[in-house]
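A.,

Following up on our hallway conversation. Structure tokens first:
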């Protein structure tokens, strides 16, 4: 008969403690991607957990999934704040889509996208208040 394996305790984390986290190959690669922004390991982990926790809280608040259930992310929107210039081989990307500049070059057939100019900003005019 096989020996039952110990299961990890699911106790809530306690602020000020130093948890031990084992890095497998995929976890290490994912953290390395996050750290390309200049963050250290701790900041990268805090950022990632914070983003995911916000996603869970939002899904639970809006009733997208029952509380305690992990939601599945269906779509997301990228924004940059502050803008960070990318390498010249990549398009400048806004929420409207990729913007190819003369210095951008097509890296693969998957990157062959048309340049679509952004729509001009809409101006909302409000009637003047009468006293």
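Then the amino acids I'd put at each of the 131 positions:
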């Amino acid at each position: 008969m096989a020996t039952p394996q110990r299961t990890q305790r699911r106790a809530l984390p306690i602020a000020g403690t130093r948890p031990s986290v084992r890095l497998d190959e995929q976890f290490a690669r994912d953290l390395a991607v996050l750290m390309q922004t200049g963050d250290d390991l701790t900041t990268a982990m805090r950022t990632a957990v914070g983003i995911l926790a916000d996603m869970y809280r939002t899904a639970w608040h809006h009733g997208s999934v029952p509380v305690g259930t992990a939601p599945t992310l269906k779509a997301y929107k990228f924004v940059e704040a502050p803008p960070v210039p990318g390498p010249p081989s990549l398009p400048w990307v806004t929420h409207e889509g990729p913007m190819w500049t003369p210095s951008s070059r097509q890296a693969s057939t998957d990157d062959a996208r048309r340049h679509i100019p952004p729509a001009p900003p809409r101006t909302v005019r409000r009637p003047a208040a009468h006293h």
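Residues 41-61 form the longest helix (21 residues). Curious whether your intuition agrees with the design.

B.
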